[in-house]
Amino acid sequence: MNRVAVFGGSFNPPHVAHVLACALVRSIEDVDRLLVVPTFKHPFAKPLAPFDDRVTMCELAMAWIPGVEVSRLEEELGGESRTLRTLETLARVHPDWQLRLVIGADILTEAPRWFGFETIVKLAPPIVLGRAGFRDPGAGDQATAPALLPDVSSTQVRAAIARGAWSEVEKVVPRAVVAHARARGLYGAPD
Question: Which of 39, 46, 49, 128: CA 20 to 30 A from 110?
Fold first, then answer.
């Protein structure tokens, strides 16, 4: 049985918390591989950089970590990306895989909006990584998940790029991703 962690997201753009999440899962969880799955079309209609650019940036940011690979599965499936559909497809195509879903504690607050979240949990029990600035809603009133990931978001990164604050971006985004975003003029990057 192959133990495969699935780390989906917009990765718009990928930043150091995404890279650290991959490294943490490969380091501390009992998984053989980690599959990074960029969203093809966001189900909540969030605007995204072109899919090819986000795949390339994920490869630049994370694929150098042993046992981590970037998947274009959601593009192959087409339409709006749904975690449940992605996991069901992986389970059907790879019946020898034991799936786990990697999510940040911040994402748990959105879980009630996810299609079929209860089924997702049964199909791929979550690996929840604590993130600075976010409580784990399942940890009880007093407890919080240990903050393993820094408080950085793609939203903050896009805003910094749009205003040309490259010195801020360079502290939280892998060098190769910064170079790609600049070269492609992504996120309203000034020349």
Answer: 49
